[in-house]
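Narrative summary of target 7.
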Amino acid sequence: MEVQESSIQYNRWSNSQDEVSVNMSTLEGVDCEQICTKLCTGKLGIAMKVAGGIVLFWVIFMIGYVTGYYIHKCK
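Modeled conformation, tokenized:
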């Protein structure tokens, strides 16, 4: 189990305005965010989206082909 660090800050400026901020950080969250940011932005992000779209197209195509084969198979 990862150690979580959290801090809570409460600042009261006046009677009508309150601010509460809670910060929680884990080592896994930072790494995951960095990986996601690298894979989803820039030229690498565009390449990943194109590759994902091509793979998704072929998966749907093969499912349709197999389904159509069994539906229209001669008896």
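The two ends are 58 Å apart (CA to CA).
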